[in-house]
């Protein structure tokens, strides 16, 4: 008999969510995590004595359904935190502050347009919302339930009313730039509002494909796309998920890297029957559910030889190059941002859409920009456990930094990028450099090696039309089950995608239990 | 001086069919200049007369140029495992110096191509097939670290020698010990300082061999073979005679019975092994091979189509015939893929794809034939044959019969 009903590889938020749902239904579940703590890309870790940060630093789309289902409140996660404004940062202090329903610091026309823009986007986001938390039907031979999911999507779109529906179909694959030009004239505002359509993907403002989808996907949280940091911090969410999983009976083991998925072979075919740990220990289970990214799962842990040829080739061709780097600064005091009364905001540094576009152009050819664009947060303003009293942490997502830098991530390249990022920050936050006690730069290559995510990719694999919905990560693995019996996926590489959202873990558990 | 190309340069260089290693000799014998092309090589449809060449295969012996056939070495410690995952047969059972006929399928269990695999040493296999396959082989090798794929098509000269006197011809050429070589076996002989590899294989259903040699000795081998075969009726044969012989033997032909899956556009206009009656090549005892899941499902539900061998009354060749369940053509149930009047069997034979459920009932062929430009139509009630139309005992007899 197997040791467990289910082994979950990885204790990122998706692995924990999947484990919690399965354990709640009475399954014997073991979560194996390579790292010494839970959270994956959302793990809070000390990057300098006394200073902590998590790669994923804010919430904007975490599923309220999951929070309720798993009773995360009882485990210390309070999602009712205040949404932060997004601020288009201006070196001269003429910032534009963007909240749920209004703009401050922008022209009258833009402010009026913003109301219309939010209304349209909220309508579209609401129409799509049910599909992120559902298994997408495969193509061909559909069951009635699956056909109904298709039908429901049609119905949801139709229920928006004819005009909104047609408008949705028109804008769905529009480049961010075109959408912005239709509504706004202020360039800095355009850049800031484009950010959530682009970050984490290989997309610039002028790229068609999935920017609008990406934006709508990020609008499903309780603040409809506005970002927040929970009072208990990102670690509060991760701890609550771990607590919910263990309270339901799941075991979580850390420092337990899985070397390979054990594949049994007999005349009935192949079957995943457990895992072998790097230390040599083998644990058996009726099924293995992996929250590692699809390339890691299929090519490293399972091995292409145990898959079919065309499937393995599709996995190998998945687009997994990360484009976002992370900077963590330990600060000995609170920075002063001229013209900004409350620095507890999500600050975007990109003065115009072309700043994003040109930075992307550099990345496209294997470089990074002279003028990096970034999203900056001071998470210690909300979560005081991140830094010693009176001191602070600055956390920045730097866009368009390619995993595969031409010439490789040498010490010089890292130092040069750090200098450019610091110069840009200093230009917007004068005096910042003097406050820095320690700086940690994580390139996508660092994220790959430290967090075991191929390419250091935000979504584990590109979130784009060809890798979305029932095509995520690719057909035949788009419904969490995989071509290898006994093996399932539950990480960001599965539908709906990455971000601290929980959909993949939730949907995978649902598929396993059905 | 200008930079313009010299007037003598061939503006179509690279476009013209290439010459095979045996071309010089074959060109001299191609009395009819009946050339076509195969994989970019100039290739004979026939040399003198297709029927005559066919009778050489069945009564004496003939040579057929297999240089244009694609040849790949798959080598390294992972070679067997890689091939075993790719093809539907159990490659681990293939011993050194043995050959096996295989098909390989897409993930959906549709045939990519068929071919033969030669195990030429412990860790080296030679795969031969009709169409260039390097991209499929590379895709198939992902996940196997220790395997090397080398295209050997230009590096090996291959010549097929088929027919009842083929053995006697090779003996007369001095191949000592050939009498012990069994069907699908491989032997090696010294020839002019290089190695001549001989396999007892072929595509005619008759006694026959395939000769594999370094291109430097291709013409010398040809000359030695033709000198030895002079009294055994040796003659080159082309594509037309091959097609006749293989049809009698019941072998499938690419672009006749088989539409390679990766090149097929219309849904399910490609074929599965079961549809081509090649279920015996599919080894479900193997835990894993490409297409296994889909083929298992197909085995459960039964193939949509089945390739059958038909004996058709009369002498009107059923080429391109559409098949029906009644003489009145009530329901269309299939189509003929290849047909001929078989001189050896003295029968009107065909291969046809029939919708599997219709095999329970009658099979009527609607045959169109011509008499001096005027078309006529007839209906013929066909009989399904289980055995190959032509498979004489000499094909497998070891040692083969000696002619003198
Ligand atoms: C720079 C950056 C910034 C981001 N910022 C935000 C943000 O602010 N807000 C937001 O919502 N999202 C953000 N994201 C996206 C978000 O972090 C991820 O999409 C999300 O964390 C993925 O969660 P997961 O559980 O699917 O996978 P992961 O968090 O990657 O977890 C997978 C886990 O599996 C483990 N694992 C892998 N292989 C093995 C193995 N062989 N054995 C054992 N364990 C293994 C890993 O160690 C890891 O713990 C950001 C991403 C990046 C790259």
Automatic annotation (TrEMBL), chain A:
One of its GO terms (molecular function) is oxidoreductase activity. Pfam families: Amino_oxidase. SUPFAM superfamilies: FAD/NAD(P)-binding domain. Interacts with COX5B; this interaction may contribute to localize PYROXD2 to the inner face of the inner mitochondrial membrane. InterPro entries: Amino_oxidase, FAD/NAD-bd_sf. This is Pyridine nucleotide-disulfide oxidoreductase domain-containing protein 2. Residues 15-498 form the Amine oxidase domain. It comes from Parahalioglobus pacificus. Probable oxidoreductase that may play a role as regulator of mitochondrial function.
TrEMBL record, chain B:
Residues 39-286 form the GCVT N-terminal domain. GO terms for cellular component: cytosol. One of its GO terms (molecular function) is transaminase activity. It holds the Pfam family GCV_T. The keyword Transferase applies. Residues 307-367 form the Aminomethyltransferase C-terminal domain. Keywords: Aminotransferase, Transferase. It comes from the Bacteria. Substrate binds at residue 210. InterPro entries: GcvT/YgfZ/DmdA (IPR028896), GcvT/YgfZ_C (IPR029043), GcvT_C (IPR013977), GCVT_N (IPR006222), TrmE/GcvT-like (IPR027266). This is Glycine cleavage system protein T. It comes from Parahalioglobus pacificus.
């Amino acid at each position: 008999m197997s040791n467990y009903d289910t082994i979950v590889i990885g204790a990122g938020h998706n692995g924990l969510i999947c484990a919690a749902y399965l354990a709640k239904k009475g399954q014997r579940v073991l979560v194996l995590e390579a790292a010494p703590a839970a959270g994956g890309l959302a793990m809070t870790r000390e990057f300098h004595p006394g200073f902590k940060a998590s790669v994923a630093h804010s919430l904007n789309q975490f599923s309220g359904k999951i929070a309720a289902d798993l009773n995360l409140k009882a485990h210390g996660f309070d999602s009712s935190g205040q949404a932060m404004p997004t601020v288009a940062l201006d070196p001269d202090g003429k910032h534009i502050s963007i909240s749920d329903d209004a703009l401050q610091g922008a022209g009258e026309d833009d402010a009026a347009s913003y109301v219309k823009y939010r209304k349209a986007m909220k309508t579209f986001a609401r129409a799509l919302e049910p599909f992120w938390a559902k298994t997408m039907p495969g193509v061909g031979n559909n069951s009635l339930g699956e056909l109904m999911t298709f039908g429901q999507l049609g119905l949801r779109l139709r229920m928006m009313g004819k005009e909104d529906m047609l408008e949705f179909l028109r804008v769905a694959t529009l480049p961010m730039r075109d959408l912005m030009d239709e509504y706004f004239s202020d360039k800095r505002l355009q850049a800031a509002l484009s950010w959530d359509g682009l970050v984490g993907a290989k997309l610039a403002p002028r790229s068609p494909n999935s920017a609008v989808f990406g934006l709508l996907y990020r609008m499903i949280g309780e603040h409809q796309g506005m970002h927040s940091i929970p009072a208990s911090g990102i670690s509060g969410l991760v701890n609550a998920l771990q607590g919910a999983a263990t309270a339901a009976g799941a075991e979580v083991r850390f420092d337990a890297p899985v070397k390979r998925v054990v594949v049994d072979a007999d005349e009935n075919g192949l079957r995943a029957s457990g895992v072998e740990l790097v230390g040599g220990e083998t644990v058996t289970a009726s099924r293995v559910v992996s929250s590692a990214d699809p390339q890691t799962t299929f090519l490293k842990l399972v091995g292409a030889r145990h898959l079919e040829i065309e499937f393995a080739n599709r996995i190998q061709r998945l687009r997994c190059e990360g484009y976002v780097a992370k900077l963590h600064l330990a600060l000995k005091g609170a920075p002063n941002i001229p013209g900004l009364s409350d620095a507890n905001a999500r600050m975007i540094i990109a003065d115009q859409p072309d700043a994003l576009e040109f930075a992307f152009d550099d990345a496209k050819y294997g470089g990074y920009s002279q003028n990096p664009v970034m999203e900056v947060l001071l998470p210690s303003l909300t979560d005081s456990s991140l830094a010693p009293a009176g001191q602070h942490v600055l956390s920045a997502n730097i866009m368009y930094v390619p995993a595969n830098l031409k010439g490789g991530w040498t010490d010089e390249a890292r130092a040069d990028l750090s200098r450019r990022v610091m110069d840009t920050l200093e230009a917007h936050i004068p005096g910042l450099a003097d406050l820095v006690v320690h700086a940690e730069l994580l390139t996508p290559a660092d994220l790959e090696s430290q967090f075991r995510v191929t390419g250091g990719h935000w979504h584990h694999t590109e979130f784009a039309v060809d890798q979305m919905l029932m095509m995520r990560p690719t057909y035949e693995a788009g419904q969490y089950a995989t071509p290898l019996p006994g093996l399932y996926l539950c990480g960001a590489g599965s539908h709906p995608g990455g971000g601290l959202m929980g959909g993949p873990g939730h949907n995978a558990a649902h598929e396993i239990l059905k | 001086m200008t930079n313009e190309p010299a007037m003598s340069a061939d503006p179509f260089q690279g476009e013209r069919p290439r010459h095979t290693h045996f071309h010089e000799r074959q060109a001299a014998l191609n009395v009819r200049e009946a050339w076509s092309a195969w994989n970019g090589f100039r290739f004979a449809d026939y040399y003198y007369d297709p029927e005559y060449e066919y009778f050489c295969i069945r009564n004496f012996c003939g040579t057929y140029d297999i240089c244009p056939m694609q040849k790949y070495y798959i080598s390294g410690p992972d070679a067997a495992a890689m091939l075993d995952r790719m093809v539907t047969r159990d490659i681990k059972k293939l011993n050194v110096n043995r050959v096996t006929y295989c098909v390989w399928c897409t993930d959906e269990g549709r045939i990519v191509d068929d071919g033969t695999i030669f195990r030429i040493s412990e860790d080296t296999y030679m795969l031969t097939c009709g169409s260039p396959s390097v991209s499929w082989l590379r895709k198939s090798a992902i996940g196997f670290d220790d395997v090397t794929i080398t295209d050997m098509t230009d590096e090996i000269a291959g010549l097929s020698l088929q027919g009842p006197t083929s053995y006697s011809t090779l003996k007369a050429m001095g191949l000592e010990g050939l009498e012990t070589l069994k069907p699908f076996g491989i032997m090696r002989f010294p020839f002019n300082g290089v190695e001549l590899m001989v396999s007892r294989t072929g595509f005619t259903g008759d006694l026959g061999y395939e000769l594999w040699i370094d291109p430097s000795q291709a013409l010398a081998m040809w000359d030695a073979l033709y000198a030895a075969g002079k009294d055994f009726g040796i003659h080159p044969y082309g594509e037309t005679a091959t097609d006749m012989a293989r049809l009698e033997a019941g072998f499938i032909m690419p672009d006749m019975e088989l539409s390679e899956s990766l090149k097929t556009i219309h849904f399910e206009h490609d074929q599965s092994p079961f549809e081509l009656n090649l279920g015996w090549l599919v080894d479900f005892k193997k835990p894993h091979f490409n297409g296994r899941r889909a083929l298992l499902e197909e085995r459960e539900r039964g193939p949509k189509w089945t390739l059958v061998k038909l004996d058709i009354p009369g002498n009107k060749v059923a080429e391109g015939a559409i098949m029906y369940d009644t003489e009145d053509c009530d329901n269309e149930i299939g189509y003929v893929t290849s047909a001929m009047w078989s001189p050896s069997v003295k029968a009107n034979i065909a291969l046809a794809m029939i919708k599997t459920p219709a095999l329970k009932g009658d099979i009527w062929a609607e045959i169109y034939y011509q008499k001096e430009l005027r078309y006529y139509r007839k209906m013929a009630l066909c009989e399904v044959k289980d055995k190959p139309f032509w498979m004489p005992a000499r094909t497998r007899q070891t040692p083969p019969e000696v002619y003198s």
